[in-house]
Amino acid sequence: MVLPHSNKTITYAEYLTWTDERYCEALNGEIISMAPAPSPRHQDVVGGVYAAFRAHLKGATSKPFIAPIDVCLFAESNTPEQNIKDWVQPDLIIVCNPHIIGDKRIIGCPDFIAEVTSPSTFKNDRVRKFQAYAQAGVKEYWIIDPYHEFVETFILRGTVLERSGQYFLGDSVPCSLFSGFRLDLTELFGPAAQTEQLPEA
């Protein structure tokens, strides 16, 4: 695989021609992430959040998905792949509109996105992807920090994602989109968070 030069934009069609198994994310045609495989701690937390939402949404039209799955934020079903310049792989998404769930990817904006952050993804999660998610129209966005044991929630108001809450160990996190849902952070983070060291950036 030949990676594009840093000053060259890339399209989704070009990305699909890559022959290896490496994943990337791009905004406005610029690659913003080619992260290595996530840590066991990261995956444990993602799995816990997914399991909680999946249990709550059992039998519902809304469907949760976990990475890796391509989300073409601004695309429509008839958008040519060579015209797609924005795609991401959030840690967890929930799609309420089944019509944007394609055979191989999500075509359009999910209703809910959660990112499990780390020092290496901090800037993207809080700045670049944050802005793209607001622009695309994500209704609710969570940033989950498993090493400092807290969750920040944001709700879309107009075209801006505004912080709606900050939750710590011992709290339970509600979701504005799904009545009755609560995520228990003590259960989510568990004893592993007390012993695992913060990874290097």
Supply the key terms:
201 residues; alpha+beta; nuclease; two-stranded antiparallel ribbon; 5 helices; tt1808, chain A; disordered N terminus; six-stranded mixed beta sheet
How does this model look, in words?
This protein is α+β, with helices and mostly antiparallel strands and 201 residues long. The chain has one domain: tt1808, chain A (Alpha-Beta Complex). 22% of the residues lie in helices and 26% in strands. The protein has five helices and twelve strands. The strands form four sheets. It has a six-stranded mixed β-sheet with strand order 3-5-7-8-9-10, with helices on both faces. The longest helix is centred in the first third of the chain and has 17 residues, at 40-56. The radius of gyration is 17 Å and the shape is globular. 30% of the residues are buried. The model is unreliable at 1-6 (pLDDT under 50). Residues 13-185 form the Putative restriction endonuclease domain. This is Uma2 family endonuclease. InterPro entries: Nuclease_put_TT1808, Restrct_endonuc-II-like, Uma2. It comes from Paenibacillus chartarius.
